[in-house]
């Protein structure tokens, strides 16, 4: 019987890449996101390899999240791996000039959404006495930087959540891994700069950033280790990066 993975933010970027590598390694999937068309397209592709169930909802809305998870067919409720990937940064500016809507969206997706999903899925893992939770943090959760107050705070919260989860869940045989990527060329910067492609592209110019597949391979490595091995925390940089805002550009 295949393992089953629940992946949030699966319509693009790291979530999509993770779904791809999981499917090619015989892991059945629940893929979640807000863009139904992209999820259906991904499901159509991956159904060649494994069973795929699509859930289209916004993790920022608890009732919507609960209704979707409650609707899972019996087979898909036996979740072995949870990848809390959904989230993002909204805006990059001085805190005083930031928009309240951006601050709320950052906290709601990166922190509250992760908590909503986890609160609903962990009881299933506890009853099965097994499971592996992957929380996507960021180097921003370890090293704060200017013009990123709320994003950095939200990812620092993910770091703390991962540590506390591990303390609470180890008696139930549930592993918790915190993944903290550095610069990854996905839709992240496009969202942060509100669709300004020129600004987004400039973030990744004159060096080789990570790509979504690099992080997906690292996630798969963590969940593919023997039962007695738990990667607690993994920080991943492109070779040109040495700190949150320190990148060597040619």
TrEMBL record:
UniProt GO molecular function: oxidoreductase activity, acting on the CH-OH group of donors, NAD or NADP as acceptor
SUPFAM superfamilies recorded: NAD(P)-binding Rossmann-fold domains
Class of the enzyme per the UniProt entry, highest EC level: oxidoreductase
Keyword vocabulary terms for this entry: Oxidoreductase
PROSITE patterns: ADH_SHORT
Pfam families: adh_short (PF00106)
EC number: 1.1.1.313
Similarity comment: Belongs to the short-chain dehydrogenases/reductases (SDR) family.
PANTHER family: ALCOHOL DEHYDROGENASE (PTHR42901:SF1)
Name this protein carries in UniProt: Sulfoacetaldehyde reductase 2
Gene: isfD
């Amino acid at each position: 019987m295949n393992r089953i993975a629940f992946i949030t933010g699966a319509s693009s970027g790291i979530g999509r890449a993770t779904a791809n590598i999981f499917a090619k390694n015989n892991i059945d999937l629940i893929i979640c996101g807000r863009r139904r068309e992209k999820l259906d397209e991904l499901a159509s592709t991956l159904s060649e390899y494994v069973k795929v169930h699509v859930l289209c909802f916004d993790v920022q809305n608890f009732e919507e999240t609960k209704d979707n998870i409650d609707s899972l067919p019996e087979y898909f409720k036996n979740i072995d791996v949870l990848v809390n990937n959904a989230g993002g940064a909204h805006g990059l500016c001085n805190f005083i000039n930031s928009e309240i809507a951006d601050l709320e969206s950052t906290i709601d997706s990166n922190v509250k959404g992760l908590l909503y999903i986890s609160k609903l899925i962990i009881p299933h893992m506890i009853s099965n006495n097994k499971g592996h939770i992957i929380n996507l943090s960021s180097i921003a959760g370890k090293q704060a930087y200017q013009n990123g107050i709320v994003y950095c705070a939200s990812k620092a919260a993910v770091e703390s959540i991962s540590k506390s989860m591990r303390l609470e869940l180890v008696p139930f045989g549930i592993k918790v891994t915190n993944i903290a990527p550095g610069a990854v060329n996905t839709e992240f910067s496009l969202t942060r700069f509100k669709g300004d492609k020129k600004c987004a592209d400039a973030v990744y110019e004159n060096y080789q950033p990570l790509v979504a597949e690099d992080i997906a391979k690292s996630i798969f490595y963590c969940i593919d280790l023997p039962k007695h091995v738990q990667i607690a925390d993994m920080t991943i940089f492109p070779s040109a990066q040495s700190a949150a805002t320190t990148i060597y550009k040619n």
